[in-house]
Design a protein that fits this description.
heterodimer, A: mainly alpha, Cytochrome Bc1 Complex, Chain C, 9 helices, B: Rieske Iron-sulfur Protein, four-stranded antiparallel beta sheet, 2 helices
Amino acid sequence: MTSKIGDWVDERSGWRKVYETIFLRKIPKINWLYTLGSATLFTMSLQIVTGILLTLYYVPEPTQAYASVDYITNDLTFGWLIRGLHHWGSSAMVLLVILHMVRVIAYGAYKYPREATWFSGVALLLLTFSFGFTGYLLPWDQRAYWATVVGTRIGEVTPFVGGSLKNLMLGGEEISGLTLTRFYGAHVWILPGILLLLVGVHMYLVVRNGITAVPKRNE
Amino acid sequence: MNEDADLPVADQADSEAAATVPQADPDPESDAKGLSRRQMLSRSVAVMGGAIAAGVGVPAIFYIAGPAAEDAGVAEWIRLGAASSVEPGRPTLMKANIERRSGYLTTNEELSVFVTTDNGTEFTVLSNVCTHLGCRVRWVDEQDGFFCPCHNAVFNADGSVASGPPPSPLDEFEVKVEESQIFIKGAS
C-alpha cells in the first residue's frame, strides 16, 4: 500500500531519485567529527520550532516584553521547557557551528572544489552570531539591555560608518522600543529568511560536491 | 519502502565494512542474526528521532493549549447596583466593571446585563449577548423585546427567542440580593 502510494508520487515527482541522491549517496570512510554539521542542522530545526512557539506569547513591546517572558518562564505550562530549549539551543548552536568550522579547517575541507561551500558556511556563521545578538535583547532585562549597549558600541568603532551603523541598529541614538521591535523583526523574519536560503545553498553544495575524506599523512 | 533491496549503499564504499560483509550476499536481511547493521542504524535513527519529536511535541501541545484552560480570574459575585433602581416590568440595563486576567495582563471590562423584576424582590438577569453570533442586544419598548441589530433577531422579555436566527434564549445569570444590592455570579 505504502509502496503503491510511493510509486504513484514518484512517477509524478521523482522523489526517490532525490531521496537517493541526498541520503543514499556514497561517502568516504569518515569519523564522528563529520556529524557536527548535521548536529548544527538539527539544533537549527529545534531553534525554529521552539522560536515559533515562543512567538505565540512573547510581545516585543517595552512595557510587556519582560512580563511576557516572565509569564512564559514561570506561569505557562512547559513554558520553561520551550524557552529553556531555545535559550540553551542558541548557545549550543554557536558552539556547534564553530566546532564544525574547526573540523573543516583541520581537514582542509574548504579547498577545491568546495570553496563555495566554505563561503556559504562563513556567511552562516555570521548569521548565527546575528541571531544570538538580536535574540539576546528580546527578554528586555538588564543583561539584555547592557549587552546591546556594549554590542552596538562595538559596532560604532567601525571606521567611517560606525556612527551611522550604530544608529541604524538601534533605530535612533539610544536603545528604545524601536530597537526592540527591529531586533525582533530581524530575529524572526529577516535573519530566518536569509538563513533558510543559505542553508539550502550550503546543503546543495555538500550533496553536489560530496564530502572530503579524512586527510592522510604523506598524501 | 524497503531501502535495502536494490539501492547502492554507502557501506560499499567503506573498505572495512566491505571486508566484513561479504559482497556476494546482496540481501543483508538473510543474515543469520536477522538484523543488518544498516537496518539497526536506520531503526535507531527512527526511534531516537521519534523520542526527540515526542519530547518537544507533547510539551508543545500543553504549551499551546495552556491559557485556554486558564481561569480568567473574574470575581465570583459581581455587584450590579441597588435593587431599587430596577423599574418593575421593564428590563433595565445595568453595568459592572470587571477585571479579567489573560496571561500576565489584567484588563478592565464593562459588563452589561438586563435586569428584570415584576415585584421588586425577585430579579432575573439576562446577558446582552445575542446567542446567534455574539452581537449586543438592546431593549426596544415598541417591540416589547430585545433586538439584535446584526441579523434582526428579537428575544422576548424573558429571554426566549421571538424571531430570527438565534439557536437558544439569552443566557441567564445566577442572582442574589444582599443588603438591597443585586449581585450576579461571574466565574462559573
